[in-house]
């Protein structure tokens, strides 16, 4: 991150929860809450604001209408440059696994101390994963049973298959109705998740692991 404060949006359908989060985060010099949303439509509008784009969305799992996990998947597809940190009252590993598959970078419980929530935000902003202490050990065990490919989101798998076909970022963008910048961000995320350094290595991996 740059020296500027990281821009955060709060996504929760309970105003009191948002008020509490804002009060916690307003005291942190390197974080700045730039908007609040009570539903998916409002959150997507905040994400699409190019004049003041958020760096991270702190997002509730259980919301009326579209769930936070479904919304996280939409964010990952449309705005992959925006990190997503799930906030939930549910200490449930299956929810956490669904959130990770949707593209979330972390999952923290609502009753966590403020210091842990801030630690989670900082970790996810840095491109790392973060889970609340009670969930971390179980998630490490679950992830150890997965292949790197199984950790990819559906959109990332589509991009990987397109790379295996030899398509450029521009062609992939046209094929899937995305911007070239969005495709490039997905490619960066693929390299990070697969622990691959260069573009040639990524394409080689895509060809070798192409879905049949």
Automatic annotation (TrEMBL):
UniProt-listed SMART domains: HTH_LUXR, REC
Keyword Nucleus in record: no
Pfam families assigned: GerE, Response_reg
Single GO MF descriptor: DNA binding
Superkingdom: Bacteria
Keyword Transferase: no
UniProt xrefs under InterPro entries: CheY-like_superfamily, NreC/VraR/RcsB-like_REC, Sig_transdc_resp-reg_C-effctor, Sig_transdc_resp-reg_receiver, Tscrpt_reg_LuxR_C, WalR-like
Sites bearing 4-aspartylphosphate, chain numbering: 60
One of the GO biological process terms: regulation of DNA-templated transcription
Keyword annotations of the record: DNA-binding, Phosphoprotein, Transcription, Transcription regulation
UniProt domain Response regulatory: residue ranges: 7-125
Domain HTH luxR-type: 145-210
Database matches in PANTHER family: NITRATE_NITRITE RESPONSE REGULATOR PROTEIN NARP, TWO-COMPONENT RESPONSE REGULATOR
Name the record gives this protein: Two component LuxR family transcriptional regulator
The species this protein was found in: Caballeronia calidae
């Amino acid at each position: 991150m740059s020296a500027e404060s990281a821009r955060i949006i709060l996504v929760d359908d309970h105003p009191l929860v948002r008020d509490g989060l804002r009060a916690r985060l307003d005291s942190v010099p390197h974080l700045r809450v730039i908007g609040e949303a009570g539903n998916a439509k409002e959150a997507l509008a905040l994400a699409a604001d190019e004049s003041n784009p958020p760096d991270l969305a702190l997002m509730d799992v259980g919301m009326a209408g579209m769930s936070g996990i479904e919304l996280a998947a939409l964010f990952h597809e449309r705005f992959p440059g925006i990190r997503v940190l799930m906030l939930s009252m549910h200490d449930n590993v299956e929810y956490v696994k669904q959130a990770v598959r949707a593209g979330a970078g972390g999952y923290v419980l609502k009753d966590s101390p403020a210091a842990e929530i801030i630690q989670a935000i900082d970790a996810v902003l840095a491109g790392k994963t973060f889970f609340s202490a009670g969930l971390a050990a179980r998630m490490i065990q679950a992830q150890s049973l997965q292949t790197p490919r199984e950790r990819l989101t559906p959109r990332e798998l589509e991009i990987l298959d397109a790379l295996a076909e030899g398509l450029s970022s521009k062609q992939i963008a046209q094929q899937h109705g995305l911007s070239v910048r969005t495709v490039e961000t997905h490619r960066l995320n693929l390299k990070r998740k697969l622990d691959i350094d260069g573009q040639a290595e990524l394409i080689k991996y895509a060809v070798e692991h192409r879905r049949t």
